[in-house]
Design brief:
By secondary structure, the chain is of the alpha/beta class. It has 15 helices and 17 strands. A hairpin with a 4-residue loop joins strand 5 and strand 6.
C-alpha cells in the first residue's frame, strides 16, 4: 500500500538530552494497514518525559535532510547520531547519521541523498506559547533584508516545512498571532492557486457557513496615508522624524522599510489607490466565500500592502467574522481561546496539508474544553479522511479524552514514563482503545487510579455485600447487575469478575 509512515527512530550521542540515549521510538506496527483515514501515532506522557523535544528533533532531522538534498547544505541543526526508518509509498527508507557519515538505504540498497524521498510536507503545529518548534520568517510582507539585498530568511524557510504556531520570528506570541498567521496562510494558498478542497469541509464540520469576513481599520497616522503630498520623499522624511518612544514596536519596522526601496514604492502606489477609490470610507471589509473563489481576487491584490500597513501599526484588524448555520455569528478576535484554537488550527492545517505529509501536533488540547477535546480526533478524521489517507499524524498530548477516539485500524499509542532514576521508559498499548471510558484510560494508559462516581461505588459495594452474605434479595442483585450491563468495559476490567460472580449467584439461587 502507498503511504508515508515513520516506523522507528533512534537517537545517540545527543548531549543536550541524554534521556533519549539509545532509546528506540516505535511509531507504528503494521505499515501496510488499509484504511480510509490518515494514520495517527498518539504519544502520551507526563511533563519532563521529552514529548515536545522529540517532535522538535524530528523537525530538525527532516529539515536537515531537505537542505542537504536540495541546497547541498551539510550544516546539521541536530547535533547527535540517529537512525530513522520510514515508508514512502512502497519503499522503505533507512537513514543513519553517525555525525561523520550519512548512510541511506532504500529497500536495503544503499543510495545517495539525491535518491531520497522526503515527506511532501513537514508541518509543525502547536497552540502553546512555549512550543519547541522552530519558526519561520513571514514571507508575505517581510521587511527584513539580508546583506545581499534579498528578504531575510531562516534555515527553516523552505517549501517542505510549515510552522503553524502562535510565535513570531521575534519569539513573541499571542492568541491573535494564530489568527494573523491563519490569514497569512489563507492568502498564500489562494494567491498561489493551491486551494485545498478541505477548507470548506472545516467550516462544514464546525457547523459554520464557509464565509469569512475580514475587516481592516486605520489606526495612528491615518492622515499620512490620505495626504495628497504623500510620496516616497514624504514617507522617508516622515520616518526619519519618528519618535521611537512614541511609536513603540513598529519603529523598527518603519526603519527597515527605508532599506527596502521596492516596498517603499509599492506603499506609495497603494496609498494613491486608496485615495482614488470612489467610496473612500473605512473600514475596508473583505467577504471571502470559500465556495466562490472569485471573492478572493480583491483580497489577494491588496493583502500584501494591508499587511505591511498593519506591521507599521497604521492599520489593524477589526472584526473577523464567522457565521453559524443557525444564523448567529461571532468575531473570532473575541471568541474564547478554545474557539480560536479549533478554528484557526484546522483552517491553517487544511491550507497547507498534502498527501504523504508528516504532521507533528503538540498538545492540541490546550485551551480546549473537555467537550472539544473529545471531539478533536473525530474532527481530524472527518476533515482529512479519504483525501489524505497516506499522511502520518504524530500527536503528543496529556489528555485522556483523545485516547478513546483512536481508530484501531489506523493508529498507534505510545506512552512515555520516567522511572525512579529519571530514565525514560516506553510502552505501547497493543489493543484498541476506541470507546474506552475516561476511568479506564486514566488507569491503563496514565497509571492514574481513579474512583468511579459515588453512586457506582455504592452499588458495587452493595452487590459484593449481598453476595458475600448469601442474601435472598435477588431482585436487588438483578437491578445492580442490569445497571452494570450498560457500562462499556474492556476484557481486562476487573469489574467483569464481579459481574460474572453475580450472574452465577443468580443462576444458583433462582
Amino acid at each position: 500500500m502507498n503511504n508515508f509512515r515513520i516506523i522507528e527512530f533512534k537517537i545517540w550521542d545527543y548531549k543536550q538530552y541524554e534521556k533519549f540515549e539509545n532509546v528506540t521510538f516505535n511509531f507504528s506496527e503494521e505499515i501496510d494497514c488499509d484504511s480510509d483515514f490518515p494514520f495517527i501515532t498518539l504519544i502520551i506522557g507526563a511533563n519532563a518525559t521529552g514529548k515536545s523535544r522529540l517532535l522538535r528533533i524530528l523537525v530538525e532531522v527532516f529539515n536537515d535532510l531537505y537542505k542537504l538534498k536540495n541546497e547541498q547544505s551539510s550544516f546539521f541543526s541536530f547535533k547527535g547520531g540517529y537512525k530513522i526508518v520510514y515508508k514512502f509509498k512502497k519503499s522503505i527508507f533507512s537513514i543513519e547519521n553517525n555525525k561523520y557519515e550519512l548512510i541511506i538505504y532504500k529497500n536495503d540498497r544503499k543510495i545517495t541523498i539525491s535518491k531520497l524521498n522526503l515527506p511532501e510536507k513537514l508541518i509543525a503545529q502547536s497552540y502553546s506559547i512555549n512550543d519547541r518548534f522552530p519558526h519561520q520568517i513571514n514571507n508575505y510582507s517581510n521587511l527584513r533584508i539580508s546583506p545581499t539585498g534579498s528578504p531575510l530568511k531562516s534555515r527553516y524557510n523552505n517549501s517542505m516545512y510549515e510552522y503553524l504556531g502562535i510565535r513570531t520570528f521575534n519569539n513573541m506570541a499571542s492568541a491573535t498571532g494564530h489568527i494573523t498567521r491563519t490569514i497569512d496562510i489563507l492568502f498564500n494558498a489562494f494567491s498561489s492557486g493551491n486551494v485545498n478542497p478541505s477548507i470548506p469541509i472545516v467550516f462544514e464540520t464546525l457547523n459554520l457557513i464557509p464565509v469569512l469576513s475580514i475587516e481592516y481599520r486605520f489606526k495612528s497616522y491615518s492622515s499620512m496615508i490620505g495626504n495628497e503630498r504623500f510620496s516616497e520623499k514624504y514617507l522617508r522624511s516622515f520616518i526619519d522624524n519618528l519618535d521611537e518612544k512614541k511609536v513603540g514596536f513598529s519603529y523598527r519596522n518603519f526603519k527597515e522599510l527605508l532599506n527596502n526601496p521596492e516596498l517603499l514604492k509599492d506603499l506609495v502606489e497603494y496609498a494613491e489607490k486608496l485615495r482614488e477609490r470612489k467610496n473612500n470610507r473605512f473600514p475596508i471589509v473583505f467577504n471571502l466565500d470559500f465556495t466562490h473563489y472569485e471573492s478572493f481576487e480583491v483580497f489577494i491584490s491588496e493583502y500584501k500592502m494591508l499587511d505591511l500597513l498593519r506591521k507599521l501599526n497604521l492599520v489593524s484588524y477589526g472584526e473577523i467574522m464567522v457565521y453559524r448555520k443557525n444564523g448567529s455569528s461571532f468575531d473570532i478576535n473575541r471568541g474564547s481561546s478554545g474557539e480560536i484554537n479549533v478554528f484557526t488550527s484546522l483552517i491553517s492545517l487544511a491550507c497547507v496539508i498534502e498527501d504523504y505529509s508528516l504532521i507533528l501536533i503538540d498538545e492540541p488540547e490546550i485551551s480546549l474544553h473537555p467537550n472539544w477535546q473529545m471531539k478533536y480526533l473525530d474532527l481530524v478524521y472527518s476533515i482529512f479522511h479519504s483525501r489524505y489517507t497516506n499522511t502520518h499524524f504524530v500527536i503528543c498530548t496529556h489528555s485522556h479524552f483523545l485516547v478513546s477516539d483512536l481508530k484501531s485500524d489506523s493508529s498507534y499509542l505510545l506512552t512515555l514514563k520516567n522511572d525512579e532514576n529519571n530514565n525514560l521508559l516506553l510502552n505501547t498499548i497493543p489493543k484498541s482503545t476506541y470507546g474506552w471510558t475516561a476511568e479506564e484510560v486514566l488507569y491503563t494508559v496514565f497509571d492514574v487510579r481513579s474512583t468511579r462516581n459515588s453512586f457506582f461505588e455504592f452499588d458495587l459495594n452493595k452487590l459484593i455485600k449481598l453476595i458475600n452474605e448469601s442474601s435472598n434479595d435477588l431482585d436487588e442483585i438483578k437491578r445492580i447487575l442490569d445497571k452494570f450491563s450498560t457500562i462499556k468495559l474492556s476484557d481486562e476490567d476487573p469489574l467483569n469478575i464481579i459481574i460474572e460472580k453475580g450472574n452465577k449467584y443468580i443462576q444458583e439461587n433462582a
